[in-house]
Structures are given as C-alpha cells and as structure tokens.
Amino acid sequence: MEPTSSRILPYRHISKPTDEILHYIKDRKSGKIRSLKTKWEKFNNLCMGGIEPNTIYTVAGISGSGKSSFVNSLETDLFDLNPDIEFCVLSFNFEMLSSKQVGRKLSTKLDKTTREIYSGDSNDRLKDNDYLKIVKESEKIKNYSIYYVDIPGTVPDIKKTILKFSEEEFVKNKWLIVILDHTLLTRGQTGSSERATLADLQQMFMEIKKYSKNTVIQISQMNRDIEDKDRIANQTLHFPMRRDIFGGDSIFQASDYLLVLHRPELLGIKVYGPKAWPTENYVYMHFLKNREGDLKILQFWNNLQYNRIEDVSPKETKENSLDF
What we know:
Blueprint: H1 15-30, H2 41-46, E1 55-61, H3 67-81, E2 87-93, H4 98-110, H5 114-117, H6 128-141, E3 146-149, H7 155-166, E4 175-181, H8 194-208, E5 214-221, H9 229-233, H10 248-254, E6 257-262, E7 271-272, E8 277-278, E9 282-290, E10 296-303, E11 308-311, E12 322-323
Parallel strand pairs: 1-5, 1-6, 2-3, 2-4, 4-5
Antiparallel strand pairs: 6-9, 7-8, 9-10, 10-11, 10-12
C-alpha cells in the first residue's frame, strides 16, 4: 500500500481571529456589514437579520412542502430587498430546468399559476395583455446577477465550478451565494454510496463557506419516517426531528441553520402537534439548528399556487413565533 500524502495545515495565533471578530462586531454595529434581509420578518428576526455570509443554510422537507418555492423566491427577493449590497448567485438546479425556475418567479410576481402562464388549459389560453406583462417582468428578471447550472455533477465538479465562477471578473470581491437544489441529486463517484456522497458534499461546503464572503443554501430531503401512520396518529410525534432528514448527522454538523418546511395537511393531519395548531393552508418552519439563536417554529400562510409562502399576520396567530 502506498503511503497517503499529507500536508502541514496552517496555524495562527489567537490574536489574529480576535482582531477579525472585533472588526466584524464594529462593522455590524456601524451598519457597514449587514445581513441580506428577506421578505419574511420572522425569519429575519431569528437569523441575525436575514442571510449571513460564511454560513450554511439547509432547507429540508417532504415533497410538496414548498422548500424549492421558498428558496426560488428567496433567490430573487434578496436582489429586490437589498439593492445597495453587491452579491452574485450561483444556483445548481439539479432537480428542475432553470427555465422552469424562471417560470416560478414569473408566477410569483404576476399572481398567476404556472399552469395559467403555460396555457395548460387549452380552453383558456393566456391572454395577449397578460403575455405582455410577462415579457415586461421577464426583462427585469434578466438583470438579476443569477447564474444557473442545470447539469448534475459530482462533489469535485461542484467545487471546481464554484472556484472557477469565483474567479470571474464580475464576481471578484463580491458576496457569493451558492444554492443547491438538491443534495440527493449530487452525482456520486464510482463506488460511493449515497450517504458517503452526501457527507463529502457537506465537507466541501464547510470548506467553501470559509472562502472570502460565501454563503451556501442547500435543499435536502426528508426520509419516510415522518409519514409513518403511528406518528401521524400521535400528536406528540408530529414535529420533524433531526433523524427525519436523510443523512441527518452530516447535514446537521455542517449546517449553521437547519430548518424544515412542513405541511402537515399533506399527511392528512387535521390538527398539528401537542397544541393542536391548524393545518389547512399553513406551512410550518421548524428550526432544528440555529447556531446564533433560539430554536423556534414559524408559522406561514400557504400561497404555493403562486409559488409563495407568506408571513402570517399577528391578527391571524397569537404569536409571531412558536417555541418547541
């Protein structure tokens, strides 16, 4: 057996990171460094004001829970709500074509379903004036600094693509947000299991987030345990747990924020959890990990026909956020 090659890892005195954190605290205090705010105030309040640099966000959920719509909306909302902050998005869309992602954005902005936009009903095709509105909105979308990767790749492929993209002149010295939809569609190398590939992906993202000013937002999948009929029948077992996320150990370790979007009504649940919360048209966001804050459950309104989840107003809920 050939000896494994090794390298000396760099080390530095504690004074260096101390100076860095003091600089960060001062710049946060003065407003020089700000989070990218989202349209969800409850989310912002729980996440240091919004999306932070050098951070990994994991969004998990069962199929149909709204996780892709949440991230798709987030992708463009960040540009709309933070026009004075320079950043770029590199989005790996392994599940959907990027053109379909743009279709979702148009659906959100025009309050029309994708079925309506695509003239899915042959008896009720898109009107000319609506098409002109879509064309007008699409011209705005073209100006977002978003770049898509449609072809699935391995973990080394993804890393090389991120590093190459970071060298582009229009990206240098800017905040880079890397989005992956989703983790289980990452191609494994020959002989690697799905879990091993997932673990390698998390190791790579932990490395990437430390480069310059990078943020990673990844979408992940739940396993089938949460759909077990005994859990559905027992209100104390309704809430998603760490073990419900496929490859939960590696994802939990890598993530700074781990949240699960859940629509219990998809599982036939009429009242949700020990406090019997309503389920019809509600989406619940469970924070299973929050490196800088509390673990909460946020309640949202389901408007996924237009690819949106929306804040529930204080009049509609007794609390802005719900404790575990």
